[in-house]
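SAMPLE LOG
Freezer: B-3
Tube label: C17
Construct: single chain, 379 aa
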Amino acid sequence: MTERKGIHPPKIYAIWAEARPESPMAGLSGFLSENSRRLFFTERGDAELKIRDMEALRLNRHPAAEYRCVEYPGEYDAERSIQAELLKTISLQIDPEIMRYEVTDRIYGNTGGGCMVGTLAVRLPYLDKTIWINCNDEGVTITSADYVWNEDDSGSWERYEDVVMFEVNFRDDDPQSMWPLLPAIHEALAYTIQRETEYSSGLFSIPAKWLPETYRRGADPAYLKWAEEMEQSVEVGVNGLVVNDPSYRHQPRRETDTQAKVVYIASPLSGDVKRNLQFARQACRYAISEEMTPFCPHLLYTQMLDDSNPEERQLGIDMGNRMLKLCDELWLCGDRISPGMAGEKELAERLGIPVRSVGVEEIQSMNLSHTEGMGMTMG
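STRUCTURE (predicted):
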């Protein structure tokens, strides 16, 4: 049987890979295989795109291999092959010395499937390349091309497996396993939490071990330690407030813990300031009689700040709120709730801190000694 004139079989392309001399696979070469199958292409452009994707999967100074698009088998040994998975493992070994990064873009929105995603485009100057860090409430995906938003016009959505560098599950993976990319991941995650809470006005839940430092600074350190030990998630609300799980407040005290509960004393201040400060002292004395340790911010901070000065008043409120996060209970003392007390009550409820109302009669029913100038020497 003779071949018809003018009819030629289609060309078949493959990728020949040679490990570079400085690679752990130095000396090896062969046709590129993936998932134990050799890669073949009917279009040269498809093979060249695969080569570009392989070259982009790199986080160190030294490429694992050099690649060539060739007609198969050409002059090459058809029996030799080299695994793409091994080459990727070498190329994705992170070089800590070159992980300085610059954020060049931030994008947040719905990907179309109902999943809200925050993405940071992160430039790695030493490698002259950009990677994309994509976050939602389940984990992080780091890619060598913008497969979520396709702003780089790469069409990478259809070849996700070719551009993914790392996939992280918040529940199963440890943050330190992603060092030295962790600072960039935390920045992407903080951006996602901020946008998500603004968008939904709800809470963003994340395992405590993954909570970015931005949100740790304003949280209760003891609560975060407990949540990490218990492998619990924490919830972040609008303005970055970490909301304590109510179950944390109901943890049994250790037998060795003989210290009384710390209670935050909230009572009115404005109006008859002298009389109100006297009542605050009575409320503290009442808490002591109940074997509690009272903390009353307006008895303390009015000694050093001017409550009539708006800036200094706000400073006192902010410091009081930070202390409230460390207290076991909030006591609303008196028969009326001032605007400042209402804010403290709202914060306590969001933090899961128990709130107790203590009326004037209850406080004054105790046979308390005079509270002004008690004659005690504190040191």
